[in-house]
Amino acid sequence: MNPPKLFTPLTIKNVTLANRIVIAxxxxxxxxxxxxxxxxxxNYSKYALGKPGAVILEATxxxxxxxxxxxxxxxWDDARADAIKPVVDFMKAQGxxxxxxxxxxxxxxxxxxPWHGNAALDETDAARGELPWEVIGPxxxxxxxxxxxxxxxxxxxxxxxxxxxxxxxxxxDRIGMELVELHAAHGYLAQQFLSPLSNKxxxxxxxxxxxxxxxxxxxxxxxxxxxxxxxxxxxxxxSVDGFEGGWEIADSxxxxxxxxxxxxxxxxxxxxxNAAAGATASSGQRGPGFQVPYAEQIKREAGIxxxxxxxxxxxxxxxxxxxxxxxxxxxxxxxxIHDPFWPRHxxxxxxxxxxxxxxPEQYGWWLDRRAQGLRQLAKAGA
Length: 382
Ligand SMILES: Cc1cc2nc3c(=O)[nH]c(=O)nc-3n(C[C@H](O)[C@H](O)[C@H](O)COP(=O)(O)O)c2cc1C
Fold this sequence. Notes:
Elements: E1 10-12, E2 15-17, E3 21-23, H1 38-49, E4 54-61, H2 78-93, E5 97-103, H3 123-127, E6 136-137, E7 151-152, H4 155-174, E8 179-184, H5 189-194, H6 209-223, E9 233-238, H7 249-261, E10 266-270, H8 292-302, E11 305-309, H9 315-323, E12 329-332, H10 334-338, H11 342-349, H12 361-381
Parallel strand pairs: 3-4, 3-12, 4-5, 5-8, 6-7, 8-9, 9-10, 10-11, 11-12
Antiparallel strand pairs: 1-2
Helix pairs in contact: 1-2, 4-6, 6-7, 7-8
This protein binds flavin mononucleotide.
Flavin mononucleotide (FMN) binds near residues 59, 281, 282, 312 and 334.
């Protein structure tokens, strides 16, 4: 019998993921001044021990004002990048491809950590020493009521931010990252340019679809020469805004074709977020695999690899998506928080790795004996 596709490797450019499971980027809101710390090391190492194909570090800001909150990670200088390197080495030692999501929050910056309210910074935050900062965006349109009005970006700002993303990709390469994902989803800066809801510009970065895509496409053009040809480049998009008059799936297909032409390897198909409510697409009432149809349509119509994400709960569900050619990779977020060994546990449920050979050897040897012991106990009791 063939092994489940979920547990077959996938080679993208010169990088091979041992299986099709990717731990999706998840902000930890736990950095101080953008610095990677022990919490981040423990958190990402824990995911690597579960042996997914890849682990993508959270949205990491290319400049301080590009952070979402005061707790967001930054990679805007060499020292901050170097602080991330130990976990890159650890992930590789565990056989997980290390990746990082590069982001800029734009008008959705300067907000509270989720557990402080997820809204614009206020006097309670100021009392904690967390002052608001000036946010930027394509147009002076706030993300929602009570949110900061962004300063409209000049052409110099646009060129500067694009340059910062390329610099960040260069740093990611230098510290050994093997996968970069550009964050163009969830209402952050790149999506603010894409969506007519947030982009009201009348210059060549606004108006037509072609103009609204320009910022992201120029970003990719700046990143590709810096990020090695042999290393995969992913772009996460919000496949739809989910609001009347917003970004639609047909726009995503056009964008994906353009990104493919610029040597992007995978479109990570999320949705929503281009409004104040909820920093990620995970809020609200959604059913299992609710975003899979986006990954499927973009894959089929743009002829590019896609990653499905959003309420993918078990291996059987993931396998159906892969077997039916609806996506090439499966990303999980909250399931991984709940069970960092999700890849290993799903493998066993699907009849793979029954002797724990793919677990870290420090664990596998014991778990195999534990399982044998439990079987004997069960037999004796029967
Ligand atoms: C704690 C947390 C932090 C997140 N941070 C990010 C992020 O940094 N970048 C991003 O693109 N999505 C982020 N997301 C969204 C997830 O990557 C994922 O798309 C979403 O949770 C849906 O997948 P799930 O149903 O498997 O959780 C975050 C989600 C959670 C739960």
